[in-house]
Write a structure and sequence with these properties.
There is one protein chain. With 318 residues, the chain is an alpha/beta fold. The protein has two domains: 160 residues, Rossmann fold (3-Layer(aba) Sandwich); 154 residues, Rossmann fold. 36% of the residues lie in helices and 14% in strands. It contains ten helices and ten strands. The protein has a three-stranded parallel beta sheet with strand order 1-2-3. The protein has a three-stranded antiparallel beta sheet with strand order 4-5-8. The model has no long low-confidence stretch (mean pLDDT 95). The protein binds glutamic acid.
Length: 318
């Protein structure tokens, strides 16, 4: 029984990522669960061991600890392929030759149609019913297919501990990319089950992907964990916080500081994140080494339901 934090090591963690990590750690520890860290480094081009190292150091600096070794998805492709084979044997997988651009223009062309419960960027189903001849034609033209799930427009209802009941339609989600790399939604479902993850706490940008994951869990006979999607931190321009906003990572916020000053700064950052999650009162300070003292204060009821505006976070950091 564990919770987890599963970053992609494609860059430094920013304050929004760190806040989600803290929320996941508090939720796991306060419910007596273990806490795992999994590196979602499926994409070998964008992921790097240097980012992985820096991300783990950031977590440690904030006093977040985890149980057991850090797992890397890049070392577990055989498990994802086994799950893919199982779905294929059940007749639920088909090759898709569409490029991203083709999918985008199809979605745009259909933009006037009502979206209803469909996930962001839902696949319009272009390649679902190609004949053997049409597939052969595309292969002959040198196109390498991605593999997609035949989801039959399944409607999924699940509970989120913060949002309540969520309902969504599952599209024909990618299971393996055209270069053979297993896709995120498949890997996450397999790993959460294999690792005994019973609680998923993550950013609410993934809320619309959760029906896909719940559907895959059911098809593969895997348990569904509890979900808690944490509202994101916004940048000064109101868009989701990102590296480009600048001065948003631990390294950037502590650059050039001497040891003592740096420690104070890290405690301020940690305290700001803790206040924003409702486990610390404004004006209180928590040191990384004292984080255990906040575990009992974690309560979903005190977790804000709205995104955290940059101005609020900046005020806490001042
Ligand atoms: N690796 C994903 C990300 O960094 C998170 C996946 C998850 O928590 O399920 O956005």
């Amino acid at each position: 029984m564990s919770g987890r934090f599963a970053p992609s090591p494609t860059g430094p963690l920013h304050l929004g990522n760190l806040r989600t990590a803290l929320a996941a750690w508090l939720a796991a520890r306060s419910s007596g669960r273990g806490f795992l860290v999994r590196m979602e480094d499926l994409d070998r081009v964008t992921s790097s061991p240097l980012h992985e190292q820096a991300q783990l150091e950031d977590l440690t600096q904030l006093g977040l600890d985890w149980d057991g070794p850090v797992v890397r998805q890049s070392e577990r492709f055989d498990r994802y392929r086994a799950a893919l084979t199982r779905l294929d044997e059940a007749g639920l997988v088909y090759p898709c030759y569409c490029t991203r651009r083709e999918i985008r223009s199809e979605i745009e062309a259909a933009a006037s149609a009502p979206h209803g419960l469909a996930a962001d960027g839902a696949y319009p189903g272009t390649c679902r019913d190609l004949s053997a001849g049409q597939r052969a034609e595309r292969t002959a033209a040198g196109r390498r297919p991605a593999l997609r799930l035949r989801a039959e427009g399944e409607r999924i209802v699940f509970r989120d501990d913060l949002v309540g009941t969520v309902e969504g339609l599952v599209d024909d989600v990618v299971l393996a990319r055209s270069d053979g790399v297993p896709a995120y939604n498949l890997a996450v479902v397999v790993d959460d089950a294999v690792q005994g993850v019973t609680q998923v706490v993550r950013g609410d940008d993934l809320l619309s992907s959760t029906p896909r994951q719940v559907h895959l869990q059911r098809l593969l006979g895997l348990p569904t964990p509890s979900y808690l999607h944490v509202p994101l931190v916004l940048g000064p321009d109101g868009a989701r916080l990102a590296k480009r906003h600048g001065a948003v990572t631990l390294a950037e916020l502590t650059v050039g500081l001497g040891r003592a000053e740096r420690d104070r700064r890290v405690a301020t950052i940690l305290s700001a994140l803790a206040v924003s999650l409702g486990v610390l009162d404004d004006g209180e300070v928590v040191e990384p080494g004292e984080l255990d003292g906040l575990i009992d204060r974690f309560d979903v009821v005190r977790l804000p339901r709205a995104p955290l505006a940059w101005s609020e976070l900046a005020a806490l950091l001042a």
